[in-house]
Amino acid sequence: MAEPTDAERLVRAKSYPYDVPSTSYVLFQGAPVPLKRMNPPDDTAQRIPVLAYGSNASPQQLASKYADLSEEEGIPVLKTALTGYDVAYSARFSSYGAIPAMLVASPGTRLTTFVTWLTEAQLEVMHDTELGPARDGSAYTFGKLTGILAMIDAVGMRDEVFMYQSAAPALGHAGAMCAYAEVVARERTLEKLPHDQVLAAVHQEIAPDMTLDDFVLKTTTDAAARDAYTAQLKKNGIKVKKLKGYNQLIPTLQ
Questions:
Q1: What is the pairing mode between strands 74-89 and 140-152?
Q2: How far apart are CA 22 and CA 125, in angstroms?
Q3: What local confidence, expressed as pLDDT, does residue 254 receive?
Q4: Model pTM score
């Protein structure tokens, strides 16, 4: 695979968490196929439900991660209403220059999110992209979230799902956590801000002598610089209590 151009790197970093359809779909042959509410794939019950509250709900991101799917293979991505949670910014940079998402408790908030239904082989691919370079949980941990109230299209109510959770603290913006404006939620208690605005703000805090584009490109191409930038974000990060009912399972499914 050819190395991405600088322009492609900038688009990927700045446009996180990418476009997400308004309805459930199946990723099939690299594209989203709309799914009728009561018509899930036949094998959904045999798959592993993994919460996709950030970019993993986007067909663009999933198509990139699962470029090697066979022409007959698909991934159901089912719209989900989740009560009592919101999606906040994590105090770190991803390898592609974005500020990744994390799930936080938010009493009263009604989050619109998605659940990906993965085969065991597909879950292994997701582990490779989420758990850090050595699959050691340095980026995200993997576990099961229980005791929840989640209404999933075509499936119904569930009280548990699997999920990835950021290993970093929450990003501190003006001394408080903030939520992704791109993620739909009602009755929010957190301030919501778009990703491009937050990215520009942390750029000004960390490297105001650089242009935003140069800063982002350095973040994506220089691992040492990225680690140093992440360390600065963590200094002002906000410690978040472990989610109630979240049990870490890395690296195996139990």
A1: antiparallel
A2: 25
A3: 46
A4: 0.92
Question: C-alpha distances in angstroms, 74 versus 24, 48, 83, 116, 179?
Answer: 13, 13, 28, 11, 30
Q: Where are the domains of the chain?
A: 6-247
Q: Are strands 156-166 and 140-152 parallel, antiparallel or unpaired?
A: antiparallel
Residue showing tokens 């022409």: 71
For domain 6-247, which CATH number applies: 3.60.60.10, 3.10.490.10, 3.30.360.10, 1.10.150.120?
3.10.490.10
CB atoms within 10 A of CB 187: 12
The full length of the chain comes to 254
Mean pLDDT for back-to-back runs of 10 residues, the chain (254 residues):
88 95 92 76 85 96 92 91 97 95 96 96 93 79 95 93 95 91 96 96 96 97 96 94 90 50
Q: Where are the beta strands (DSSP E) in the chain?
A: 25-28, 31-34, 48-52, 74-89, 101-118, 140-152, 156-166, 178-180, 185-186, 191-193, 246-248
Residue 223, token pair as written in the block: 């691992």
Residue 8: count of CB within 10 angstroms of its CB:
12
Lookup result for tokens 């690296």:
251
Which long-range contacts (C-beta less than 8 Å, at least 24 apart) are formed by 2-11? 6/213, 6/217, 9/96, 9/97, 9/216, 9/217, 9/220, 9/221, 10/97, 10/213, 10/216, 10/217
Asked if residue 152 lies in contact with residue 44, where contact means CB atoms within 8 angstroms, the answer is no
